[in-house]
Specification:
Layout lengths: L9 H11 L5 H13 L2 H22 L10 H8 L7 H20 L17 H8 L4 E6 L5 E7 L4 E7 L9 E7 L8 E6 L9 E4 L5 E7 L13 E4 L2
Antiparallel strand pairs: 1-2, 2-3, 3-6, 4-5, 4-7, 7-8
Helix pairs in contact: 1-3, 1-5, 3-5, 4-5
Length: about 240
Amino acid sequence: MADTAPRPDAELLDLAYLCALDAVPEIERRHIEQRLAKADPAVRQEFSDTVARLHEVMARVASLDAQEPPPELEARILAALPDAERPSVWQRRMRWVVPVAAAACLVIGGSVVADRIGTPPPAVPGAEQVHRQPDARTLTEPVTGGGTAVVEVSPQQRLAVLAFDGVAEPPSGRVYQVWLVPSGTESKPRSAGVLDELPSASRPFVTAFDAGEKLAVSVEPPGGSPAPTTTPITGVTLP
């Protein structure tokens, strides 16, 4: 029986995990961004969704003390991964993904691997953790076109919770993308995720951040962009 040919985009989608973990050097990240720009829109969307989901998991992990995963957890994760015949790059780099996925399983109560996390429930754990912090504060900024961006932030936890108030849906055929913009002029914005729906108080968008970064939102093509292509419609400087 003939072997099933691997998906041509499998390696690119596998690299979404490493990009979400900042586990690739800058020169390789730029190469990945170039490949994404030429990829099919559905591939870009899947890549962006994977990065966003893993960022959400890492935001939850960041709010907890480090925990040692049970020894059998790695085997469970590997068994749950799709496409048993992975490209060699996956096999070489799996050591980056497994420990983080294991930590993710601890945070979300036994669910298997970040790639399988569905839509968060109305009470998002990361948002609730920020709300309970004694240093939590709420920041607001107007949004171009109407409405307000409301960001609840915990400087100690390095977590930010974004919700829109009175903001319209993006134009047809476009999406909102969230960026974290470093304070240095030489630093480039990094994507925190593409918004599949408008974030609200009951279903907010949660992201980890570094001190002094600005949380910005721009309007982008479907699937998002490697870098902002439009002027942000709002920007909130995080403490």
